[in-house]
Known about the structure:
Chain A has helices spanning about 5-15, 30-55, 80-90, 95-100, 115-125, 150-155, 195-200, 200-205, 255-280, 310-330, 370-375, 400-410, 430-435, 495-510, 530-545, and strands at about 65-70, 105-110, 140-145, 160-165, 185-190, 235-240, 245, 285-290, 340-345, 375, 380, 390-400, 440-445, 450-455, 460, 475, 520.
Amino acid sequence: MKNLSALSIAAALLSAPIMAQEPIIHDGEFEYLRAQYGDVWDSQDVEIEEKLSEIRAANNGKPPNILYILIDDVSFGQMGNRTLNYVTGIDTPSINNLASEGLSLMRMYTEPSCTPTRTAMLTGRHPIRAGVKEVKVALVGEGLSSEEVTIAEILKEKGYNTAHVGKWHQGDIEQAYPHNQGFDWAAFPLHQQVQLSLMTREAMQSNTMLGFHASGQTNQFALDQRFKPYGLVTGVEAEAGGEAREVGIAPGEEWTQAKYEEMNERYQRQILEQLERLAAEDAPFFLQYWPLYPLNFVYPDQAISRNGGFHADKLQLLDTWIGDLLAKVDALGLRDNTIVMLMADNGLMYHYEGTSGLNQLIYRGGKTQHLEGGVRTDAFIRWPGVIEAGSAAGDIVHVSDLFTTFARIAGASDLIPRDRVIDGVDQTALLLNGEGNSRRDYVYVYEGTVLRSVVKQEFKMHLPAPGQPGAAAPVFNIYRDPREENPLVGYSLWSGASFQDMVKRHQMTIAKHPHFPLGKGVPYEGISNLRPESELTREVFASWQKK
Amino acid sequence: MKNLSALSIAAALLSAPIMAQEPIIHDGEFEYLRAQYGDVWDSQDVEIEEKLSEIRAANNGKPPNILYILIDDVSFGQMGNRTLNYVTGIDTPSINNLASEGLSLMRMYTEPSCTPTRTAMLTGRHPIRAGVKEVKVALVGEGLSSEEVTIAEILKEKGYNTAHVGKWHQGDIEQAYPHNQGFDWAAFPLHQQVQLSLMTREAMQSNTMLGFHASGQTNQFALDQRFKPYGLVTGVEAEAGGEAREVGIAPGEEWTQAKYEEMNERYQRQILEQLERLAAEDAPFFLQYWPLYPLNFVYPDQAISRNGGFHADKLQLLDTWIGDLLAKVDALGLRDNTIVMLMADNGLMYHYEGTSGLNQLIYRGGKTQHLEGGVRTDAFIRWPGVIEAGSAAGDIVHVSDLFTTFARIAGASDLIPRDRVIDGVDQTALLLNGEGNSRRDYVYVYEGTVLRSVVKQEFKMHLPAPGQPGAAAPVFNIYRDPREENPLVGYSLWSGASFQDMVKRHQMTIAKHPHFPLGKGVPYEGISNLRPESELTREVFASWQKK
């Protein structure tokens, strides 16, 4: 795998003229903070750089490995905490244990949906800046642009071995595939779980995908044979720069719940294999595990959790898998020089509350929503000897910060592009020095392309509807009112004014540094063994795409 | 204090013919469980009795001291857990630490309001069986009957020294006072915080008690001079069998927020004094601390919490006070042979969400409501060397169980009356043997005199409205849906049927063992220094009471 061409990475990096001397372009709000804290941060950075050098020196000059685990659609509180395990009837002892060995980030903000959060983590940018919003199931001919520079590309350039296993959800075009975005090796589904877990005969019969499967109705008036997605590519595997190959399904075969479960088990097997392979190499590694579980819409034969809901039960299963993975980290002697981070990408799929077993536990709302329930997730990071075990930080962090922070820790900050806005803030000080050292106290929360909320310290403003005056915008105190139900706007017009300043600064930054375009292309290119039914689907799409 | 007459206790005990041979009369639902588990429990009880004997033997033959701390109006999750501290912006390190040293009861059910929960704990009975519902502010001439046998009376009879400090809220008649219900000494307010904290000039001016204070309006059409409660007795102190004496206020003086704060500080001082006094005695002690904080409706000059709400901030203050009390337990060498239990009496006062800083955090609802938010509270119990440190139990427990369990631990089960229904289940096995050893998997939830919900295992049925059929009753799975919002009744008609059986069993037990009457009398008797304004209030009440 090491002998693969790095052409695609070079292409991406070429688009970003790198000069270490130029500062990273940050959002206006960050510059407001830098004006207040720049000197403190600069002197703190000198100490941090010394500390990072010491850590590398103690490890044969190598920066730490990074194992990044991103769980799908789980709201804050639903993993990693025994008390809340008791509330939900879902036991997560492995994740609880990981939490106890590292730092719990108590105010991690993500984007409200899968594609955007993953883009933010990969690029350090609010997805809107890369033209990205949620990638839907079915062909779109869109995805993460090769113009974007991912953390995998940066780390690879710095000498890391890189691999990705599991959900990807960055588009159906060749430039968007993980092995073309910085990963030496990748196993991933082309689309996501709506296709893989909901659009099955079993999900229809379990009452969660009413009417989807053809066996569920006979309708002689239907014309469009592609209204129900048909012949979509499922899981593929690929090496950097190479062609992807679909696995686990034969031409003409129907996708089933059993196949979905087999796919999940395969990814779990592959993450263990990849870890073992990477551990044997000299170079440090960056390994991503982005499981598809807990998403699942069919009851098991026998629930293993007290909760028994079809998401909940798979979350408990996934916890045992995480336990196996972390045991493997230990068994391979990797514990000390490996950063392990685990978090979720956004809140629960509240649409299935009740039967799924996940629920709006503390914060209101979920996936797709700007409410705290949509964008607040559990996040734990372990780095033995560097990050204090059992510590916690109430500081605000955004998922895009991981891009900047991982690059810093790898000694690769100079590879961060300087020709575009980087929203990710360097949070190395928070990791090394602990609570109170975050370099942000704000977050802009988008739903797709629309700015819906602005978070500042303990306050959160929901933006007023178009045409409404600022005084119509409800402002919440997140400590006093985590569910965002009592806006107390009468008391907070002062904060409305302050929030409007923040929105202005954000807009002015965009005006100065316009958004990049989304990647476009022909779907399903670069797949070596397209099934005839996928080929047919692509032809129907292509005949429309050309028009 | 030891030389006080025990007449009142004897009178109460005389009303309950005690014969160790007769079994305790339990509710029908418990007998259903006993029919399934009686043999197991009986053999387990033999081992438990041996273990309790060993514990006493190791402590000069003395049973353990009991320090019982009951916090007012705090919903589950709002104290004792660091993760949730971060959510609320309220730090409770002392209570978190207590939790880590003992057993966390993860499904403690209380009654939904102050008076009923306290009655249930004191008598081991659903308050309805003693005729008790919430005691309102203002004179009522009602309260806990002398016919009821309290845990204090039982422990006193067994040789314990007993004292009570803080909120009592069991009525304004002499027989209901704590020093007439088993406590050697007591300091307590006659009524509760609506009088002491809400009905002040400061609370009106802080926008939480609109229009209450006379300074807030001038209304020449008002006739009734007692519509706004006037001249109520505030805090009193007394010894068993003696007269109470009001303290901290002079005739004609106005009650203020400053006086309320002074009262809280006095109770904190007194609990430390009482602990020191009781530690010096030979006999074991039963000491209750029932603080008035966090209830409070005026902002402090400077908040100490990140939350800053007027309840929230006092909860954080109270945590430091609890820390001082527990440090005193250690300093007096009491740690090893003292059971320390801390819990709340019911959920938050949701009416003040937003400004109070407490909120419907996980469960929906609060004080006065049968929803989980009303009747689920944090509960931690520490008994070094006996209860496993850092343990947790997901078993269902009801606050009335403390009566039966404390009596058992003190070796006083034979003093539990046999002429009435005792709802409290002996949970000694749960404390000694840990999770999975509760002897109940059900709770009946009343609001006042009305049965509103029945809890069984993970299921909860809200009773249908009068006249509605059983199929109209929503049934919830509390793990999958802690907020009781998705009844999934279509899937749960089977459980409706089972719940109706439970209601029948409960009703049949009541028919066989009818409720006792509430204590009645002339308010404010037995107070030696009634202020003229209180005397006047009583006269107005008495002139009506006679009719």
